[in-house]
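Input for the complex:
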Amino acid sequence: MTQKTKTLLERRYSMLGLLLIAPTVLVFCAVIVYPLVSAIYLSLFKIFTPTLEGTWVGLDNYRTLLAKGEFWTSLRTNLIWTVGTLTLQIIFGVGMALVLHQNIWFRSLARSLILFPYFISTVVAVLVWKWLFNDLYGILNHLMMSAGLIDWPLDYLGTMPNAMISVILVGAWKYFPFVVIAVLARLQTIPDHLYEAARIDGAGPIARFFDVTLPQLREVLVVIIMLRAIWDFKEFDLIFLLTGGGPVTSTQTLPLLVYKEAFALNQMGMASAYAVIMMLIMLVFMIIYIRRTRSEDS
Amino acid sequence: MKNSSMFGHRISRRGALKGMAATTAMASLPLPAMAQETTIRWWSPQAAPAQVDAYMAQIAAFEAANPGVKVVFETTSDEGYAPQLAAAFSSGEVPDIVTHLPSFAIQSYYANGLVEPFNDVIEAIGPDDYFDGANDVFRAADGNYVGTGIGNSAANMLWLRKDLMEEAEIADAPRTWDELRAACQAMQKGGIFGAPLPYGRNSMTTLIFVGVIHQAGGQIFDTDLNVALDTQATRDALEFYASMRELCPPGATNYSWGEAITAFVSGATATGIYTGRVLGNVNAQNPPIADSVTCVRYPTASTDIPAWTFNDFPSVFIPKQSSNIDVAEAFAASLFNPDGYIQQLHAAPGHVLPVLKSINENPQYQANEIIQKYPGEVELMAQAAAGGFNLGYESAAHQSNEKAGEVVGSGVIADMVQRVVLNGENADQVIGDTTKAIEDIMAG
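Predicted:
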């Protein structure tokens, strides 16, 4: 009798568990599984975007895109952008976090202001930077010409390699505060006695940074690099608004190519195929990230 | 000991679950209609403040005449309308009326069953009141009209500064490319550049360069819409465009419509390339040069090649998915009522030119300060626009090109310009690649 009651109770608890988890599963299916399956499904069709009418083409879209030079050049551009901007974000971010960790004047104010680029809308940020870069009225050209560094205004966004360098710099400026926040939080938890021990051993500031600070930051940096690599890889608005992918296709990354296929050429099926390939590439980052976090947990 | 909640009632697990289920069910029910008002949405990429004021006046007049109808104006952009409309069409959340898009865009949408025939609206406006042939560009292969012009525009007029020409001892406006280049070279000094031609990866570069090819005697498509780009005229056009690069500001590699007009209006360039919007902007933003500004049709490679004016034929059309087609048609016709239409034209005098004869002759229209100050320029633009063409309608002999919007949107022509002019790639190779890319779009 007791056994029977327990079983019934357990069964009811199981049902309750299922009911409670059902909303989460439904939301997960709606926001993750459905779009994912839809994208893969769409990529198997040739679809005219405005009408969403299409014909089955199987894997033709994948064959076509892999044979296209534009895909490979965009992938290369995507990697250059990601590596370039991520490197600068880490360097600026760690450097600024170290400065803000010191006992300087207006430290609280500086810690708040440093977040400004990260919080500002990308559209506003790009408008400001385009104004700074402007060939006729931009302050950068004006200052450089006034200082006698250049005779004619520089074309920051319309020629290579200026365009890629500019985009990478603006990206680094926009996103380095994320690194500052994460690194600063970690810096505040490094035990002081490690530095004291290093000092007693005769370590100078540089040695203390490389032998104490950097090893302590390693774990958090790995997570930051993984997250930012994923986010930077799929960056769209900043690059699109700054250069539109130009000159020619010199700053055209894969997200811009997806947009072009979907909305300029009205080829939603091909755009989905590009998006699926992008997802597979990002999956590599994800797997590294998950493995890393799992090993940290263990 | 009694369990009690903060409200003093005991809530059982079963009760909580029932409550959650009921709440979820309520949330999923459709909302009741909030009112009996009919709302239509109006999209346009032309949204300068004065233009929006004019639209609001037209909306107010229509709403007053049609109680229970509300019109909501929403802005799109010249570079952004294609993706926005593609998303709108695919989601079914379409605007009820769209204005000021180029004619070739509508032809493409109509060919895919996305646009309502516009014949009834043209009848309501009065087909005899249009300038001759004004609606030809809107006639589809099935004989229906896909929309109508809300105005004409002469987008590639050559704008000149008479004061700078005088300083440079240039007596006449350039008629050929050689004369234009020489004039720009003579006027490029003291921080002023010769011209603001666009070299960006955008629709302006595409549309202006289509004109340049025609000014060299060439065309993009033949009359049967086969790609006809691989000609000496295209090579000449690229050579001319490359030769003008040193006469343009460094940032022209990213110029679109906004940058091009600003460069001339601000006085940073001696010549300009734009519509009549220059007139209003110069008077408002740079009055010291206002009396020196004039325009001519853009020069051609030689005097025996006729001028070719790019007119995007700013349009009005109604998406087929609109749930208020009757109201949208009535509103579309109301946009041409004299008071509102004239106010709209006056919001950008010379930029959008009237398509109705009665409006052009209307003293109220002619009474505008800018139109009176520049009668020769406005008349020239009106004539040029009336005889103008675009990529969807390259000449009177051409078939309507339903794929023109996608060719422009793909950016292949702007890419061709950038590859040859900025990257210095071999023109023959680039023209071959571009031809193939356009052929793929036409086949797709």
